[in-house]
Amino acid sequence: MAKFVSKAQLKLADIEEINKFFEDNIFQGVFSNEIKSKHPEWFKGSVSNIRLDGATTDILGSYINVPASSNIIKEGPCQFKCRLKSHSPFQISLIPNSLENIDNFTETSLTDVAENATEADLFQLWGVDSTECIGFYHHDEEKEIYVIDDIRKPNFDHIPYYPTDSDKRPIRLTYHKLIYGIKENDYYLFNWKLSHRNILNPYEIYIDFNTPPRKIQPKWFIDKLFKDRHDDKSKNFSSATNFLDTLSKQLSANDSTFIYELLQNANDYPVEGKMVDVVFHITDNYLLFLHSGDAFNVRNISAILRLFFESLLTAPRSQVFNPLKI
Fold first, then answer.
1. Residue 126 and residue 136: Cα distance in Å, rounded?
2. Which pLDDT tens digit goes with each residue over 92-107?
3. Of 110, 162, 177, 293, whose CB neighbour count within 10 A is largest?
4. Strands 145-152, 214-215: pairing kind
5. In terms of Cα–Cα distance, which of 183, 169, 181, 177 is closest to 137?
6. Are 28 and 100 members of one domain?
7. What is the rounded distance in angstroms from the CA atom of residue 50 to the CA atom of residue 137?
8. End of a domain among 186, 216, 246?
9. In 3D, which of 216, 30, 206, 197 has the Cα closest to residue 113?
10. How many domains does the chain have?
């Protein structure tokens, strides 16, 4: 089995490891005379449906262009070798004299790939250190199935797609029957395992219900976010500073802004069919704000944080999404 199965994993390796990887491995795919480049004079076609050890891979992307100096072959199944053209930016090229036709794709190794996949591979690829994950359980009425999706790490960062999925689709676990013991439309902390059943996707996971799922409570979620950011080994102080600076300026723009935002929040989230009552309680050290509106759930908080941090990265300060406006 190849040492690397995805481009993200390959990028973490050093130059020597990458060169050794390409030296040791042969890729397979489907050659076409179609040129997918702005410089058609440089190429004679392209290879798509790329596989490694019989399994699909995104190491080369959805296709790779074939240099004009490559061996002459007919359209159809082929095999070839690659090399690292540039590390920054990360570019891979096909070795011209390695291209040749084959009768069929390698299929015999697929079972071995599935059986040899390990949890440790996904730990590295997904940046996690355990098989815990958070997922949103709900019912898909249109397809009449039950679903666990919006799969996340315990710190609520998204878990990316499967390493071998060149289409980069979000992971979605489906069930034809109701899952007993958990309620719909809630986030739960689950434990996953590798299925070792899907020869086309050696990293397919399933939820291990031998470990009881735990419902994610909003307080636990907020405490977890705080601890994760506090213990962040990357020490991304710039992001935290921008966050606090922006929030401070929004709250101090007007003496009454903070009060109006609290009232607006309560009014925007009423319990259906009921008026919202509001109480301000001042103590020596705190201002307590209570209202009878509906409580936030984990999905609300997650959506607010996602929108806010996205706005910090992309928008001018005057247009930054205000997390207080729900």
1. 18
2. 999 999 999 998 876 5
3. 162
4. unpaired
5. 183
6. yes
7. 34
8. 216
9. 197
10. 3
